[in-house]
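Ticket reopened. Same input as before:
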Amino acid sequence: MQDSAQDSPEAIAALPVGKAAGARQNRSVRIVQRSLARAEPVFAQAGLAGATMASLAAATGLPRANLHYHFGTKENLYAQVLENILALWLDASDSIHPGAEPGTAFRAYIAAKLSYSRDRPFASKVFANEILHGAVHLRSYLGLELRRKVDEKAAVIEGWIAQGKMDRVDPRHLLFLLWAMTQTYADFDSQIAAVLGVPALGAEQFAAGQALIVQLVLRGCGIDPPSPKER
Amino acid sequence: MQDSAQDSPEAIAALPVGKAAGARQNRSVRIVQRSLARAEPVFAQAGLAGATMASLAAATGLPRANLHYHFGTKENLYAQVLENILALWLDASDSIHPGAEPGTAFRAYIAAKLSYSRDRPFASKVFANEILHGAVHLRSYLGLELRRKVDEKAAVIEGWIAQGKMDRVDPRHLLFLLWAMTQTYADFDSQIAAVLGVPALGAEQFAAGQALIVQLVLRGCGIDPPSPKER
DNA sequence: AAATAACTTGACCGAGCAGTCAGGTTTGGT
DNA sequence: ACCAAACCTGACTGCTCGGTCAAGTTATTT
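Engineering reply: fixed in the latest deploy. New output:
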């Protein structure tokens, strides 16, 4: 490890490499992928500092030394877990594109983000934990890729506003609030479950949350008309 | 520490106690209070596991052994920091009471929560971090005090709905979303700042966030009329 | 089937950790 | 002035941690 200049993603992926990189790599790749998936809950529940190599080894089913062989350091393992999650986050906003109607686009986006919260709660928590602690491991991601993505989506929303399809709102803050509302069902599930008096969040709670988020956003932005109730 | 049956809040506060509990206690109390305030940022940035007694000692200006004298264990110190924050959280919802109009009540609540996010970001982060990791240190608080508070506020909102002052929504989920939207400006400030390209969140960002949250909630719940723009 | 690279592992190591303690100092009561 | 009790602290301790390593085993190429 003293000879490696820097731990760039390439260098990490290339840790066990020789000249004959054939089918044997696949085995390693599979083990690495499985380990990353199994390490996710550990980092989610304990954080980077709280997760020990012993607990990670137990979760992955590999001996500690073997984890070090594949990933080098705990930080590297953590960085790769984090990297796996980022792709997910960037993809979620696909439904927000110029050709779409704002109503269907936001509905789809909210549904997609809530699906992640339901199906990959640990990924969401690892991400939330990282940002909570200052996002030191993904400063560049936030300032570059995510920022570009947000600029792109903000432009789409600006377009809808210009076309009179929705009220004038700050598109970036709208995205921040969408993230907050959808991720709260993953990140703060223990709080929501405790307050509701249920052991864990189920389909009902997600459905109720989704309905309310959609209502607040679509009516709040003047996309849907107000309730047919009165007036 | 072996003689103490359990670390109840009383037992913790009573750590350094004799028969003559007079004015000398005050000095200790002041030191403890100041230490709790200074420990907050450390726990916020590093989490419970990541915060070391050495870093806490440096932050409080006390020697490590002295911290142990006043608080016993790191967990006890953390628990007291957490407890200090809970009162804040319960008080924030004062504006939501039966006599109020929903519009002014929600406006005031959003303003109050965002004030906490701006002025006590570390408190918010410690709380968020605790819940993110399963809320093991405040299960009872969530299930009892907070749950009661939420039941109480939910009843108020139900009342407003019954009076036709706002649309029918799930009041509990509305509170969850209010928490999520207001706390995101404290807990995920590094993400928001990075995406916006600013070094740190300022008054502008909080104002923009507040305006949008108010708009989404009041129009989304049918309290405010839709924009006077078109239609 | 021999050679070689990839992979695995138990045992080991030094650093840093939370917590302890004996002995000193300050403080408030009398 | 004297005495406890409260408070303070440097030095110490046992342990857990991340990381290393040499000696294995397994798989693939030729």
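Residues 1, 20, 22-24, 27, 52-54, 64-65, 68, 72-74 of chain A lie near DNA strand D (CB under 10 Å from a C1'). The domain at 84-220 of chain A is CATH 1.10.357.10 (Tetracycline Repressor; domain 2). Please confirm and we'll close it.
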